[in-house]
Amino acid sequence: MSTLKRALAILDLFSLATPVLTAEEIISKLSYSAPTGYRYIRDLSDLGYLLRMTGGGYKLGPRIIELDHLIIDGDPVLGAARPIMREVVDQVGGDVLLSVIHGLRILNIHHERGPEDLGIAHGRGRAHPLFRGATAKTIIAFLPRKDQRKLYEAHPADVEAAGLGQTQAEFTRRLDEIRVRGSYLGVGEMSPERAGIAVPVFQEDRRIFGALTVTFLATRLNTIAQDKTTALLQAAARRIESLALASRIKEQAPAP
């Protein structure tokens, strides 16, 4: 592991359960030598990624907030997605989420809220369960086959618990069914009272970027037009892809 990766691994130790860690806890959790651990902590603190608190503990620092602000204001995908997601909310109701996969984590990066309080806890920056729900199953279905195999090998029990099969072959078959359908309807998977429809969002090279999901009360399943809603989501996803690509091309164009 490179020096940079070893230093940045410290940031991954922080969570809602452990928002503050002492230097000794950091060094112990990562099995670093004391000189190396203290040097990494000092460097991250100097750069603003860690902030020392009264009493000697450390928490994530203000530089991370600055970077998130830059992403929110400067990301062409988010810039394209926000007004389109608002349109979907206005037409369908419910909440609309844009989510991405990074490594073995699925993260929600934008959340447009509808008229009803659905009690969704997975807002921006919150990790999403890896195999449960329309969002996760849609994203995983469009991953390259080698990445799907890695996920199964790392989490066979979770795959089975999510109803995606008891063997790797069955897991692959279930994902292929979602892929062919081009969308996924999940009912009661994240919460008994909620349902969701998700469609994939692609990068310009057709690799999976993430998923666009509309979530609503499960009691609306009898009244919501599922095919129409899916088509609306798919059209919204294509618009996001097109506008994000146009924005990147504009940024890369040489000045006149």
At the fourth level of CATH, the homologous superfamily of the largest domain is: GAF domain
% residues in beta strands: 15-25%
Query: What level of helicity do the residues show?
Result: 40-55%
What is the 3D form?
globular
In N-to-C order, the SSE pattern is HHHEEHHEEEHHHHEEEH
- Overall pLDDT confidence: 89
Biggest pleated-sheet summary: 6 strands, antiparallel
How would you characterize the overall build of this protein?
There is one protein chain. The chain is of the alpha+beta class. It folds into two domains: 3-65, Arc Repressor Mutant, subunit A; 75-252, GAF domain (Beta-Lactamase, 2-Layer Sandwich). Helix content is 48%, strand content 18%. It contains ten helices and eight strands. It has helices at residues 3-8, 23-30, 34-46, 62-74, 76-92, 133-141, 145-154, 156-161, 168-181, 226-252, and strands at 50-52, 58-60, 95-102, 105-112, 127-128, 184-187, 194-202, 208-217. Strands 5-4-3-8-7-6 form a six-stranded antiparallel sheet, sandwiched between helices. A two-stranded antiparallel ribbon has the order 1-2. Helix 5 (76-92) packs antiparallel against helix 10 and helix 6 (133-141) crosses helix 9. The longest helix is centred in the C-terminal third of the chain and has 27 residues, at 226-252. The N and C termini lie far apart (44 Å). The relative contact order is 0.11. Residues 249-256 have low confidence and may be disordered.
